[in-house]
Design goal:
The chain is α/β, with parallel strands linked by helices. 41% of the residues lie in helices and 20% in strands. Strands 1-2-3 form a 3-stranded parallel β-sheet, covered by helices on one side. Helix 3 links the parallel strand 2 and strand 3.
């Protein structure tokens, strides 16, 4: 299982959050930088676990991203 650690503080601003996710998760160039595209790309990944550090810094944008990850059957651990 591949583990990726993300900093929740980097998920606060929509555009920056999607660029960060694309880089850290290795999402394809055609990634559309929105929650629907995130879901689609995540469902193509096998065996991914996301560790979200600084989860106390998670705001509503980060909460929506976490929700999409869980809907795509990605294991998310909050720290």
């Amino acid at each position: 299982m591949k583990e990726v650690t993300l900093d929740a503080g980097r998920l606060c601003q929509k555009e920056a959050a999607h660029a960060y996710l694309k880089e850290r998760l290795g999402l394809p160039d055609y990634y559309g930088s929105n929650l629907d595209a995130l879901y689609d790309c995540l469902t193509e990944l096998d065996g991914l676990k996301v560790i979200l550090s600084n989860s106390a810094d998670a705001d509503c944008c980060a909460s929506k991203i976490i929700e999409v990850m869980r809907e795509a059957d990605i294991e998310v651990e909050l720290r």
